[in-house]
Amino acid sequence: MTRLVLRRLAWSVPMLLVITLLSFVLVSLIPGDTARAILGPSAAPEQIDAVRAQLGLDQPLLQQYLSWLGRAIRGDLGSSLLTGVDVSQLVNARLAPTLSLITLATLSAGVIGVTLGVQSAVRGGRLGRLVDLASMSGLAVPGFALALLLVAVFAVRWPLFPATGYVDFASSPGQWLHALVLPVAAACPGAATAVAKQARDATLDVLDREFVRVMQANGVPRRTIIYRHVLRNAAGPVVSLLGVVSASLLGAAVLIENVFALPGLGSAAAVAASQHDLPVLQGAVVYFTLIVIVIGLLVDLVQAWLDPKVRLR
Amino acid sequence: MTRAPRQLARTSLTVLATLWLGVLAVAVLAPGLLTGRDPLEQDLTASLQTATGEHLLGTDRLGRDLLSRLVHGTGTVLWGVAVAVVVAVVLGTVLGLIAGYFGGLLDAAVMRLSDLLFAVPGIILLLVVASTFPNDVTIAMTAFGVIMASGLIRVVRGATRSLRAEQFIAAAKVAGLSDAQILWRHALPRLLGLVIVQASLIAAVTVVTQAGLAFLGFGPPPPAPTWGGLMDEGRAVMAQSAWPLLPPGAAVALTVLAFLLIGDAVRDRTTGAWSTSKLARPNRRRSRIASGEADVSASPAVLKVRGLSAAIPDRVTFAPRTVVTDASFEIDPGEIVGLVGESGSGKTVTALSVLGLTPGGGTVTGGSCMFEGLDLVRATARQWRDVRGRGIGYVAQDSALSLDPSLRVGAQLAAAVRRHTGVNRRVARSRAAELLAAVELTDPAVARRYPHQLSGGMAQRAAIAYALAGSPRLLIADEPTTALDMTVQASILALLRRLSRDRSMAVLLVTHDLGVVAQLCDRVVVMYAGQVVERCTTDELFTGPRHPYSAALLAADPSRARFGQPLPVIAGTAPVPGAWPRGCRMADRCSLVTDQCRAAEVPLLEYAHGSVARCIRVAERQDAVPVS
Amino acid sequence: MSSHDLLEISSLSVAYQGRPVLDGIDLTIAPGETVGLVGESGAGKSTLAWAVLGLARPSAGRIVFDGQDITRAGRRGRRLLSSSLQMVFQDPYSSLNPARRIGDALAEPLLHRRDLSRADRTRLVEESLRRVGLPGDAAQRFPAHFSGGQRQRIAIARALVGSPRLVICDEPVTALDLSVQAQIINLLAELQSELGLSYLLTAHDLAVVRHLAHRVVVLHRGRVVESGPTDVVWTRPAHPYTRALLAAAPVTDPVAARAAAAAREAVFSTTVGSAPPESAGGCAYAHRCAFAEARCRVERPVPTPTPDGTVVACLRQDELPAR
Known about the structure:
The complex is a heterotrimer.
Chain A: H1 2-28, H2 34-39, H3 45-55, H4 61-73, H5 87-123, H6 125-140, H7 143-157, H8 173-207, H9 210-217, H10 222-260, H11 265-274, H12 278-306, H13 308-311
Helix pairs in contact in A: 1-12, 5-6, 5-8, 5-10, 5-12, 6-8, 7-8, 7-10, 8-10, 10-11, 10-12, 11-12
Chain B: H1 3-29, H2 66-102, H3 104-119, H4 122-132, H5 137-164, H6 167-174, H7 179-215, H8 227-236, H9 246-271, E1 303-313, E2 320-331, E3 336-340, H10 347-354, E4 363-371, E5 374-375, H11 381-387, E6 392-395, H12 409-421, H13 425-438, H14 456-468, E7 474-478, H15 486-502, E8 506-511, H16 514-520, E9 523-528, E10 531-537, H17 538-543, H18 548-555, E11 604-608, E12 611-613, H19 616-621, E13 625-627
Parallel strand pairs in B: 3-8, 3-9, 6-7, 7-8
Antiparallel strand pairs in B: 1-2, 1-4, 4-5, 9-10, 10-12, 11-12, 11-13
Helix pairs in contact in B: 1-2, 1-9, 2-3, 2-5, 2-7, 3-5, 4-5, 5-7, 7-8, 7-9, 8-9, 12-13, 13-14
Chain C: E1 7-16, E2 19-29, E3 34-38, H1 45-52, E4 60-65, E5 68-69, H2 75-81, E6 85-88, H3 102-107, H4 118-131, H5 148-160, E7 166-170, H6 178-195, E8 198-202, H7 206-212, E9 215-220, E10 223-229, H8 230-235, H9 240-248, H10 254-267, E11 304-305, E12 311-312
Parallel strand pairs in C: 3-8, 3-9, 6-7, 7-8
Antiparallel strand pairs in C: 1-2, 1-4, 4-5, 9-10, 10-12, 11-12
């Protein structure tokens, strides 16, 4: 168990390195000169060279990456080229809305999806078919389109919820939740239906195993079989999928934060990308990758807890 | 819903999905067929209209025709989908195949790569790529395809790994095929369906992602129309009119749906996806079952099965198909009765039907099962609670799969004890230890193990202990030793014999193995093609079988044959349910067959006291009388 | 060893993840002979078969087929061997690719033969199908079309299509119903007398081995404990493991079965589920053997010929009670 965690953590280091290097290289390929972007089009060539040297942009790419890395390890992710704000501060401040969004969306998708999926597997027939259809349409409507629709209906037509904005959990949990209802509602259906489908398939798979029949034949009540034994054994693939779903919600968050003007990591990244703000973008990449790695770790831990075959390996 | 309309609904949806993709193709290849308008033509007098005769899908803020903009934006969408899908499929399939087939270091490397791709924050990286190569759909979607390959690598690798265990791969190696030939001839055709399903999913996700990118302003530059861009424009005017959001939103949704539907159709065709739940539903149609003659005679039998019939819905048409007809037998207390037959004979269905658990979603369609005065065929859920586990215990064939793999053996046994007796945890734990001792598992460590940590023989002993937890008077054991080694089998059979004797517990032993019958059983019920064809004592079966099928089965047993002589065989194979002939079901394979055999159903005829055979030729030689 | 042997295996060892699966196996098969491999799961029966076919890599020893050392034959060598050395697998459902036609599967052992045209291949495939009692047009069908017994016929036809000299039959009838099993057993026997084939046969069911094999080799935990003519081993088993194995075999005669059950008590040791010690030396059967002494646990028994014409690896073989 401990070895599993350690191996996972050890592996996440090279993963971070490769991904940040990749994004570093890609960002450096962005056409247009950062120095010129800062100084404006009328700047003299000497001025530009000076700024380039000041930013270290005249050094070879690998050199630039290594010095960025050296600073990043010490917690210094540089500062925004455009606003001069410290990137770690900026990104830290942006973390809460994004994490709130994906955590709430994952949780509600998990609860709704598992309930639907298990019910449809156990009851079969029409409900199963319905979950199939729902999961298709749930996946078919993109989160940001749904977001626009929700805003149009529940913020513009009937102003029940705010169309934009975010309130800190610490300052007011009630308003925090209120502000997040529409974003979560927009992100949730796609995720929930994916979970439902997986939960249904996993449950059907477990229902087909011999021990279910043995238990029923030896007098274990149906409900006990379903909720104590089948669910536990079906949980593995569902948990895996929840990991994938919450990671993909990070992507959806970029769009949904954009629609709801949530001051999150995703919208920061989108803005930074459109403004060629390299350090901010790079900082967002680091955080996003870290989040995905943590999600992967959590999934592994839950799997190990659920499945003795994994745990005892 | 029965299968037929369900399938029809599915097919028509698939047709609609294909049609929609066809329309999109037309929009790309010949946009003039769908709209005559220029997507860039502005008409400020017709700004923000809803659907009109002039503008079928309305107009945007600048009065541009939305239909035309939608149609002319299709090319970008489909090109992006094509690029992403091709990249993901090629990369995913090749890497997945290599990793799954060769294993080892190559596998480890590919899996690390897949992990890496999974951890890449996809959309952020796309934003980076999109700003590096602004407005270049091809490069952005190539990058997206690479990221999406992660999932496909895993899926293909998993499928290839399980494929590698298939014997036809070994056969191909023995035939001298190279790895490339094996992958090409054997692996790819098997994976094709799977890859198409995944590709359709990737296509769907690509449509959404691409729209999202354009929505954020990373698509082709305005004023070129894109679906995502149209939605972004729609958002800008949302306060005035929500209409412009609708056409692009619907186009995205329909396209995604179309891809998903086609993927689903392919999956259904390639995998036949429906699985069979082993959890039987409560039988709500109990009262409608034709009542057999409820046997009230005061015979001491613990179980008395009379005229039991069972049907299982067909896997394709869902129409019920009779698989057991008119099975009758009884078991006395402490007696071991063998239920013998080949696969498809209905022996397992009969045994499980006694427990009210007809497999495959099937039901008992007639007859009665008297267990200690209670007709199980008509038992209520409450009555079953006292029968299953407490009256009748059940042991399955595959011991390794018989217990919940996620719980320790001792805990499962203790839970069973508590359920049946209501004792407290501590007592239950010590009872569980006693049960394990009763099946000769005296090592206390066994209780702390998980089922997968037990050997086959130990697991079967644990499964027997589980069935004994409620001290049943009857144990139904379905091929309990088939999966075990010979010496282990012998010891399990000895254990069953001892348990039956010590607890005067009756045993119904379902088996295809005559050797097991000879060793363990007092009496035998032989089944063939859904019918009981002979019922007699074990000695009678082995010394003078009366039914030609029983006789042929014995003769075909190599342990009774003479070395160097061909085995006497029964020609052909047993008819499957639904293909049973009229009259005697064995007629086509029987050497004693007469015209009379095919004329009418053959009844069971008694040839010795309590011994019956379903053969009219028995009557020729014996003073047999028909019995039920 | 006779120079006429078709297959000659000497001191063959195979290890899997560092653990020995086969440990110094000697075995020969003469032309036209059937050798039966007997032993429980984990004894190494399948591994031996796979090693001969190059599907498992030997760590030591030699395999000589038809005078040619094939122990480390490469892909090219295997391709040349594939006509004369073939295999019939246990599971008739898994051994045919459901996505490919029967004809494609059967033609595989012929694919590398440059001397055959497509028409030749088709002809050979159909001949082979007819030889196992199936119509030639079965080549056009898919496996799903056939029952388990028919599929096993097809698998046999695939093995025969290149006119092999040795066919390895790994549990060829285990997955089949009794009535179908008899048909396949007869077919294997017929083909042998018609074509002069040799078989290396493994079977869970000892009766099948007894019926088909001329000689039998008893494997226990990767070692040969006894080998010899089938009827001698059956009537006078010498090694305690062979005795236990034969005693455990179900007898389809209730009277004999009850007698055997009583006799069995004497043969089996009473410990159930005790794990075998991972000892390097000594007899691998010692921990279960009713006749084991202290030296059995330290001294490794050497295969020794007996007056009966069998070879037995037991330290106490001369001291054991006669059977």
